[in-house]
Design goal:
About 40% of the residues lie in helices and about 0% in strands. It has 14 helices and no strands.
């Protein structure tokens, strides 16, 4: 995936010298499905009429646009904006999957999930045969691993996204790719490490160290969450990750990047998806996630967005994208996508209106009258 725009890597977390708790204000809802709709509505309002989200440097961000497209699909709202995002991604597919470097397996896998969610052909997405491009990267760095780039900070994550894309597209997943993921799991080490995944282990037979949030070492929740989703989607068991994830939870049920660290909404959302894949209880994690959502006392244009430890209580675009994934409670790849009207936060429902019917978004071409306040846009190195 775009190396500058997807998950909270250890390098970025290491730059954060102070963490804050979620905003103390009451969230707008305790219903995760509604919360996902509110977050998706906020993202749609921030989408340029051409179909892209602006990232760091005030430039169009293919990575955040792709992730936001998955968020809208997971929430099942804002169809006109979703279609516009997919159109823009097709027109800019080369800059997304390659940029200025080698092809990104994570971006190729994500693009396949988006194409399928949009009812388009992954074999001809913007003129690119996505499965073939992904296959061409197989083993470039080492046997069983997709991609030629150094996997130190993203190996498991990008492999997970690549596998999820192939499953979404109905393509066969090489056994060697799944074996590589399974071999990366921590099978030896202290009990707090066993069952989790680090971003990459050059020597998988070595025991894993205990998670250390101060040194940002040991297995992490983000890599584990993607590995779990990929293995389950491909038909392999990932049940052995359950105890690791259970032990990684923070006091409020949410999840940090490294167990023992500060809870953040991005990590919590990814783990919720993994728990959904495992069929495990995710109620506590969901309550923690929703506590980051800006409520009815926020600026009107920010209601429904999610804050993060990096945003000082303000709306955070990147946190909102992944928080919608978690609030929707759906593991990747999305099995079926249907769209309905986006809910409006902090408005009493009209008992005479059927809000469950499917149909186009209530927005006018995805652009709203009330523009949101400018949120903090962080620059996490979401690997893959």
């Amino acid at each position: 995936m775009n190396r500058r725009t997807i998950h909270l890597s250890a390098m970025v977390v290491a730059l954060v010298l102070a963490m804050i708790a979620p905003t103390a204000a009451a969230p707008p809802t305790d219903d995760p499905v509604a919360a996902a709709g509110y977050g998706a509505r906020w993202l749609a309002a921030r989408t340029d009429p051409q179909g892209f989200l602006v990232g760091p440097g005030d430039q169009p961000s293919p990575g955040q646009t792709a992730q936001a497209a998955l968020a809208l699909a997971a929430a099942g709202v804002e169809r006109p904006t979703f279609e516009r995002m997919v159109d823009w991604l097709e027109a800019n597919i080369e800059s997304y999957v390659a940029g200025s470097g080698p092809d990104s397996p994570g971006a190729l896998g994500t693009a396949m999930m988006i194409a399928v969610a949009a009812g388009r052909d992954p074999g001809d997405f913007g003129g690119v045969d996505l499965p073939a491009r992904l296959a061409a990267t197989f083993g470039d760095h080492e046997p069983g691993l997709y991609g030629a780039a150094d996997p130190t900070f993203d190996g498991v994550f990008r492999q997970g996204l690549a596998v999820l894309g192939l499953v979404a597209a109905g393509e066969p997943v090489p056994s060697a790719a799944l074996d590589w993921l399974e071999d990366q799991q921590c099978s030896a080490g202290p009990p707090t490490a066993v069952g989790g995944w680090t971003s990459y282990r050059a020597t998988p037979t070595d025991p894993c160290p205990a998670p250390d949030p101060d040194l940002f070492s040991g297995p992490d929740t983000n890599s584990t969450a993607l590995a779990v989703q990929a293995l389950v989607a491909a038909g392999r068991s990932a049940a052995s990750a359950g105890p690791f994830l259970q032990g990684a939870a923070g006091p409020d049920g949410g999840y940090p990047f490294i167990p023992g660290g500060e809870v953040d909404p991005n990590s919590t959302a990814l783990v919720i998806q993994a728990l959904a894949a495992l069929g495990a209880d995710r109620s506590a994690a969901t309550r923690s996630l929703l506590s980051w959502q800006l409520g009815c006392d926020a600026e009107p244009g920010d209601i429904g967005a999610f804050a993060s430890p990096f945003s000082d209580g303000a709306a955070d675009q990147f946190a909102t994208i992944q928080a919608v994934w978690g609030a929707a409670g759906r593991a990747f790849p999305l099995q079926a996508v249907s769209f309905g009207a986006a809910p409006t936060p902090c408005v009493e429902p009209d008992p005479t209106t059927d809000t469950t019917a499917s149909g186009p978004s209530t927005t006018t071409d995805g652009v709203r009258d009330s523009a949101p306040a400018t949120p903090l846009v962080v620059t996490p190195a979401f690997a893959g």
